[in-house]
Amino acid sequence: MKFAIALFSPPHAPSSRRALRFAQAAIAGGHEIVRLFFYQDAVHSASGYVVNAQDELDVPREWREFVQTHQLDGVVCIAAALRRGVLNTEEAERYARTAANLQGPWELSGLGQLHEAVQMADRLICFGGP
Amino acid sequence: MSTLHVLSHSPFGDNRLSSCLRLLSSRDALLLCGDAVYALQAGTAQRQALELMPEVISLYALDEDVQARHLTPPERLNLIDYPGFVALSCQYDKVNTWL
Questions:
Q1: Which CATH homologous superfamily contains domain B3-97?
Q2: Which candidate in A26, A43, A75, A77 is catalytic?
């Protein structure tokens, strides 16, 4: 089965962890994730500047390692990211900001990527709210 | 077309659960996760509404969320883990999360 997963909630929301565990279970079960799309407050999970206490769950780090390990297509909504201060090097230069906090494996792109993911996948699974 | 409806908001804070219950058709199912499992709390109208759902509509909840809140589930409830969640997503034609 091909899954497209859309996440709408910030890293501290339980639904963010739920999305991660679902994605891990999908891969472990032999399914394919055609794309992860981080929208609205979920863009914070793609920031490389999030620091969590060592003994606490680090959702942004877990996502990053998960996407890297399985070579997934991790797309972050560019409009949602810019307004929340999540920028890659290119955008930081374009808007004259002093630093970039979005690095690989994430890519900034538009909402069209979510639409395309829905076309490619058998199921769209959304996670958001609490 | 069968749909798995996924709820995660507490049923005591908004009307997602009651709206969802009105929309369910006979081939659909309901999955409670996060604070939505509070609908299983004994002696509440929400729990009664779930128990009165037609038997053909399956009721699921994420086991970890039910355990974390120390709730005693009704007999018809199926407790699932994440691999079970993935399996349900495959079993139903669509997954509708009440964001």
A1: DsrEFH-like (3.40.1260.10)
A2: A77
